[in-house]
Amino acid sequence: MTKILALLITFTIVSCSKAQKTKFSKEVLTENLLASDGSQVAFQDILKKHKGKTLVIELWASWCGDCVKAMPKIKELQANNPDIGYVFISMDKTVENWKTGIVKYELKGDHFMANDQMEGVFGKGIDLNWIPSYIVIDKTGKIVIYRAIETDFKKINTTLEELKK
Predict the structure, then answer these.
(1) Is there a cis peptide before residue 82, judged by omega within 30 degrees of 0?
(2) Which of 22, 26, 90, 162 has the most neighbouring CB atoms within 10 Å?
């Protein structure tokens, strides 16, 4: 019984340590990402471009099977929410694979690539441990969903509907 109680306490502590964040750290905001035109852009500048608009950020990679399986869901989300901004941040290892994936999967939105993949400054700064992963930001710039995965599209859809009100 004490083992079960200890396990529950540990689970609660770990769950609480990954609580919903409502803003990004300065380290994440100032981290540069590779833009599709070859320039380096600070994450805060990407967010500023979408200021005043609801934004969905998808963290993905062309090699990720779960990412590919989720593509129809993100396309459906885009079709049902055309007034929302969409930013795709790739965790690919090469620029060629990233750009090929954008074309192959017909991803519509703004495209960036983390310079050091999932284990780098950006990935660690946003607690990235799984892709695809989704972040939803409201019109005021507040993070309303921080750690959604491909099985959370119902939650994402519901949140986007609530943000329209």
Answers:
(1) no
(2) 90
